[in-house]
Amino acid sequence: MKIQAVKGTRDFYPEEMALRNWIVDGWKRVSVRNGFAEFDGPIFEYLQMYQVKSGDEIVEQLFSFEDRGERKLAIRPEITPTLARMVNQRINSLPRPIKWFSVPRLCRAERPQKGRLREFFQWNIDTIGVDDVYADAEVIFTTIDYLQETGLTAKDIQAKISSRRLLKALFEAAGFVDDELPALYLLLDKKSKLPAETFNEMLEEKVADPARRKIVAQIMGVKELNEVSRLMKLPEEASAAMAELEELFALLEVMGISDYCKFDIGIVRGLAYYTGIVFEVHDIKGELRAVCGGGRYDNLLKDFGGPAVPATGMGMGDCVLEILLRERGLIDESLAARRLDYFVAVLDEALRKDAIALTARLRRKGMRVEMSYKGGGLGKQLKAASDIGASTCVIMGREYIEERKVAVKDMATGVQKLVGTEELLVMP
Amino acid sequence: MKIQAVKGTRDFYPEEMALRNWIVDGWKRVSVRNGFAEFDGPIFEYLQMYQVKSGDEIVEQLFSFEDRGERKLAIRPEITPTLARMVNQRINSLPRPIKWFSVPRLCRAERPQKGRLREFFQWNIDTIGVDDVYADAEVIFTTIDYLQETGLTAKDIQAKISSRRLLKALFEAAGFVDDELPALYLLLDKKSKLPAETFNEMLEEKVADPARRKIVAQIMGVKELNEVSRLMKLPEEASAAMAELEELFALLEVMGISDYCKFDIGIVRGLAYYTGIVFEVHDIKGELRAVCGGGRYDNLLKDFGGPAVPATGMGMGDCVLEILLRERGLIDESLAARRLDYFVAVLDEALRKDAIALTARLRRKGMRVEMSYKGGGLGKQLKAASDIGASTCVIMGREYIEERKVAVKDMATGVQKLVGTEELLVMP
Known about the structure:
Distance between the termini of chain A: 49 Å
Low-confidence stretches of chain A: none
Strand content of chain A: 15-25%
Largest interface: A-B, 89 and 88 residues
Number of strands of chain A: 17
Oligomer: homodimer
């Protein structure tokens, strides 16, 4: 029997695992220093949970199944519904603001392509219970804080920022009603990925009235924040949304990341649940899918049966990020190299049990230690040591038998010195 | 809409997550120091992969589903088949010994009960390509190395060790044929969990001949390794298995963990693929399920379409471990406490943007920093700081406006001193 991995999934051999750990550990470290606490939920939830608010694209991509009790379940395609469920369950006891992060494994039954797999890891940060636009700014800051730490600069990436609140106010002023908006957002979200002709055909399908199509084009054609007021006499809600965006950009300036940030009305986000500031980080060359995206979703907790509590967050998958980091040469090729404290070798096979004993004692002291499985002459053992990248060898020979001393050999310089085993056990 | 979590799954709020991270980080650290490299596979694989060698109990507990291409898939209930698949795929290029570990999330569709959930995490360590019993000893050592580090002593836990190779030789000498053994092992594995009467009834069902049942009872009645030779004139294979067990116990002695280890012929392991040394770690009081189990499985790679390569390994779930650690008082209650470097507060609301800027700069230097979202008077902000466990506050007031200095306040002692912000940014 010879079985393959399922298409669109990945095997993480130690080399790939080291890279994944480096990415995930970075996500965790930056989350913690920005004041977020880690949470996680189950890998599967009731199917129904994803059918309500996730947006059509995600619903179509669910891996669903039934358990023995014929409950309809699904592997999680995103973690935000789980977050909403968990927060709602303890809404009265959790101190606010709730600032949580997670690095869930997610699955989507889509056709595998560049930067999109059927299984991936996604960094999520969310601030719940804060209405202030500072929370949105902080989510964007934390995102950039991480990306900048990987070595990406403002010449590589840009956070493109818009507001669903602004778009909604503008579209409503142009005569659209609430029910029409989710489908419009989903289409506009795809605009940059579609040929202009295809987009126009699809827009014609959704919006029959040519006058309305024109205003959609005008709105989406805005290049700078200060052009918005030239579109029309702004209704009060649109002015409020504008003020919010202006405050956001002022905060991003204060935080020192304005060189990474730009207003872009074309950022719409496909998910149905966004209500305010939305953003995506893109590679500046525009060759890849979005590195991440997020925004404010003030109604989600209520939609999941809880009270109305404001919320804002971000999700970043590992696939596009990895491609970008690789293209920019920002992945350390030595990540997977093993870092051993010692490799224990013996001059005489008769000392093998002593080597086993010493190896065990060093490990129990917390040191990373390996020895040869095959034994053989010292040369062979030192070759094995160098093959697995040991920088220091402990050689047990005559001095061990006579006075419990071992030779500690620096593999790079070849320099070696005699050390008592008890001394070795307390060495840093 | 109010949706619950699926029964048998867990929500990891920050407190539970901190505990899970502590367990998983310990598994990882001890694996690395014992020379194992981390790997992982996909959360789902082809269903067929688990139907071949996993043993009936696991096959019955699969969460299976179909993708859009009508491929039959299953969420992984264990990682060993994935390991066998991955190693086989690169069998000619992977340097040996292959010493890998993993901490996979696994799912089994079983009835949730104490220490058994439908979703859990499992530490796995495996050594592939080493025939020598030292590899088995090292797997047991690594297991005990971790458990001992958590604070568990030889008074709390014991590794019970037996040999499927020995059992097979004894049962064959008693007239059993190869095909009968998997079902017998599965039954014997349950012996300690069943009332004697139920076990005897089930044994009668499987083994019709009373003479054979008697020899099964005699074999399972052995208390010490040196009693085995009194059962019968040992066939050659049984003697070889005995010699292997004796060598194993000698190595465990050399490694300094013999106080944790004991021969126990009753350790059979339910899984079909074990071929040699098998072991389980139990709490000494015998109140819980096994903390972990493992053993040698020399045929698995071949069964998965690869060459015959020897292998030995161990799996430890997080559920029983957590119960045991909790019962023994070995879980640090402050694990989930947030460890902030600074909480930034302002004397005057007009300084809020300066506080935001300072917070951002400190975070970019790698420091864990939080500030108040609500603002308000200094007393209110210091209360917020103490609520989230900040040990040091940075207070921005008049001295900041006049000379860019802030007061650094030790929250425990109340002592505060003036520090320049640039100095703060380079403080450790």
